[in-house]
């Protein structure tokens, strides 16, 4: 059984910063791709950032230059550093991991439970 647990959300003023963490635990061999998604009320879930096992990162245009995704493979943890936050960044943020549970297994897809980020004065 694999679980993803997110932390770090909260209320922040415009221009502020937050750092989200997502730790994977359980039967894990290695994480291939980490992703952070968000869903605002009345909107579809969108990919915010993703990072491959080789460290290649991609971002949605609206967060480029403000958000940074990173990973610590020794801890099976991903991070999303969010700077210069804007009200339009308000959403529930979800982490996603494509991972192997053992050597040679298929890649399985797991989601965290979500953490609320609210940007408001």
Summarize the structure.
By secondary structure, the chain is an all-beta fold.
The helix count comes to 0
Strand percent estimate:
over 45%
Gyration radius over CA: 14 Å
Low-confidence segments: none
Q: How are the SSEs placed, and which strands pair?
A:
Elements lengths: L1 E6 L2 E3 L5 E9 L3 E10 L6 E6 L5 E3 L7 E6 L4 E6 L8 E10 L6 E5 L3 E5 L2
Detailed description of the structure:
Helices cover 0% and strands 57% of the residues. With 121 residues, the chain is mainly β. The strands form two sheets. Strands 2, 4, 5, 6, 9, 10 and 11 form a seven-stranded mixed sheet that branches. A four-stranded antiparallel sheet has the order 1-3-8-7, with no helix packed on it. A hairpin with a 6-residue loop joins β9 and β10 (107-111). The chain starts with a strand and ends with a strand.
Distinctive features:
4-stranded antiparallel beta sheet; elongated; 121 residues; mainly beta; 7-stranded mixed beta sheet
């Amino acid at each position: 059984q694999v679980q993803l647990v997110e932390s770090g959300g909260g209320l922040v003023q415009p221009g502020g910063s937050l750092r989200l963490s997502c730790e994977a635990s359980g039967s894990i061999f290695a994480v291939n791709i980490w992703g952070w998604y968000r869903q605002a009320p009345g909107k579809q879930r969108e990919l915010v950032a993703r990072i491959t096992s080789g460290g290649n990162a991609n971002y949605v245009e609206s967060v480029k230059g403000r958000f940074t995704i990173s990973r610590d493979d020794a801890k099976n943890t991903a991070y999303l550093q969010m700077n210069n936050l804007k009200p339009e960044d308000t959403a529930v943020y979800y982490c996603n991991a494509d991972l192997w549970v053992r050597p040679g297994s298929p890649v399985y897809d797991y989601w965290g439970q979500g953490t609320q980020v609210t940007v408001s004065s």
